[in-house]
Amino acid sequence: MKPFKLSLLGIICASVFVTSYADHQSCQNQISMQLQEEGWVSSTTAQVTVSIQAATNKDNSSEVVASITKKLKSVVNEKDPVAWRLVDLSTEKNSAGLFAISAKMSARLNNAQLTQLQNMIQSLNKAGEQYKVDSIDYQPTLAEIADENTRLRVLLYKDVLGQEQIINSAFADKKYQLQTLSFDSPYTATPRPMVMFAGNAATRQASASTSTPFSQQLILTANVTFSSPNVACEKK
Q1: Residues 44, 211 contacting (CB under 8 angstroms)
Q2: Average pLDDT for residues 110-133, to the nearest whole number?
Q3: Of 4, 37, 109, 179, which sits 20 to 30 A from 55 (CA to CA)?
């Protein structure tokens, strides 16, 4: 994945301040600043949740879940195996003496697999067993976010070196060096894209069949401090 780069190289956020600490405080000149880089995390896969309502004359939820998993796998392309996971399960005996089983299954699907699921899920419905797609969440995976976060860190390291050169050009006699560097948690500037099944069939089909990746903006902030010895303090 090669996310589109929107760099804020060299832009210093917040105020830049220089403070000289002398006497009993500190013998360092310090310059502190914040640097930011931003990029985009794109995903063409979605976390899909399917809810299932089933009724059986005995408490055999484990068998029902196994059957549900097999059926869901059957409607998605077998060339790309899908790992369906049980994320919720409850069983209740109703007034008719039947066991009502409510389950939710979740899997990460690409657009082609999602289209297959939407086209075929109705065929799984039968008396006493109903399937429905609850939600489609295109939030990027943790691995995709981590990759972009690493890329932004590399850019910020270069920004820090660039700022050190600029400072030492402005204060040639001070010999500033990096003292501290810390990163804030990555900030996602846009809400995660969630597609709820509230529209009609045509709308749902259009949302799943698009080949355009869903993207989220990621912003990473570095807190930097440069320091140099305070000569006046050292002479005391």
Answers
A1: yes
A2: 92
A3: 109
